[in-house]
Amino acid sequence: MGGYPTSNAFKVTIGVIMSAQSVSAQWTSEQVLALAPDAAVAKNGRGLASVRKWATLGSYESVIWGECQGSGKDPYRTQIDLSEPAFRCSCPSRKFPCKHSLGLFLLLAEQSNDFTATSPPDWVTDWLLSRRQRAEKQAAQAQGNQAEPTTNPVAQAKRAAARQQKVTAGIAELRCWLEDRVRQGLATVPQESYQLWETIAARMVDAQAPGLARHLRELPSIAHSGAGWQDRLLEHLGQLYLITEGFARIEQLPAAMQADLRTQIGWTISQEEVLSGQAHSDLWLVVGQRTETEDRLRIRRTWLLGLNRTTFALLLDFAPGQQPFAHTLLPGTCLEAELVFYPSAAPLRALIKTRQEAFQLPKPRPEPRLQQRSQPIAKPMPPVRGWNNFRCCCKPLCQCEPENDG
């Protein structure tokens, strides 16, 4: 499999015993509290991690539930599917998971013997059934989309050609702007108006190249980033110029490198198209996770390590406001899953196609030599991926001819 490093360092076969008591050993209090959307929920959830706060506590296979008396007449019904994990609570909170879900999860991690193994009540089985039906519906819809394309191929080709023309014109304009910018020098950049950068960024938006617009809007702040800002700004300008060089000869580049270049410019690829690619089945260890917020949109990056092939993967999840993420994965846990990678010369970002239960990886941990391979994914992603690959195919920053003083 080209582009995916493989190794026989790990061949893992693990059996999972599905009961609340055995599953509870997989989770620690620190892992549970890491799921809290904010510090207030973590604090309140810790306060509810007491048996006396719950009227009932039950478990069945990989599901736990409980009834917690709140301020209302009826107790809040809280349930957790530990296979993902997934949460549901009847409380009116818009935070996910809520304090009741967190408190119930903490109880499992710390006092699992207080859960009674019994058949789930109707309100739990109804929730599990709805989750199963929703998953089946999504799978059927995905297969239907692949089998019966709804877009008109002729109209789609026309739209693609029109965008290609707009992007080509926009990149040509950006190329001239970059050359002028370098010819004028960078000494006056800190005193220049932000509007100078916004104008060319807006032009890239009009040219349907939002990726380039995003890069341009990040540049003004570099001039105020402290000593050495000139070198950093010149590096970013050089990367943008490298994109214009690559686009001018995109047909000469390998298909995977073309995909990287289009991503940087702002082309997107649908999840359905990605999932139609080759799936990579493995036992994936969650090695890291980071959540950020941009304009009320929460973005979560989860890094996985395939233990059988020592392949790294990055999952990107988006959730507006306090809405839950599509997947709940805890660092230190494992899941057996099929992943499909986005097209790239250096495949990293992926989507989950199918998955099984999540569980804790027993010791021994991965060999120390893998720590060196994990260091790059612990750092922020560079603004332009595939820089070294483009460098071998394209010219460096423009070499402008000196002006004739005579």
Based on the model shown, name its key terms.
406 residues; 13 helices; disordered N terminus; alpha+beta; 5-stranded antiparallel β-sheet; single chain
The SSE order reads HHHEEEEHEHHHHHHHEEEEEHH
What percentage of the residues does DSSP assign to strands (E)?
A: 15-25%
Structural class assignment: alpha+beta
Calculate Rg over CA atoms.
Answer: 26 Å
Q: Can you walk me through this structure?
A:
Mean pLDDT is 81; it is low at 1-18 and 377-406. The strands form 2 sheets. Strands 4-3-2-1-5 form a 5-stranded mixed beta sheet, with helices on both faces. By secondary structure, the chain is α+β, with helices and mostly antiparallel strands. It is elongated. 39% of the residues lie in helices and 20% in strands. It contains 13 helices and 10 strands. The chain has 3 domains: 20-142, no CATH class; 153-267, no CATH class; 272-390.
In short:
39% of the residues lie in helices and 20% in strands.
Element layout with pairings:
Elements: H1 20-24, H2 29-33, H3 39-47, E1 54-60, E2 63-68, E3 76-81, E4 86-89, H4 99-110, E5 116-117, H5 122-147, H6 153-184, H7 195-206, H8 210-218, H9 229-248, H10 255-265, H11 271-275, E6 279-294, E7 297-306, E8 311-320, E9 333-341, E10 350-360, H12 369-374, H13 387-391
Parallel strand pairs: 1-5
Antiparallel strand pairs: 1-2, 2-3, 3-4, 6-7, 6-9, 7-8, 9-10
Helix pairs in contact: 3-4, 6-7, 6-9, 7-8
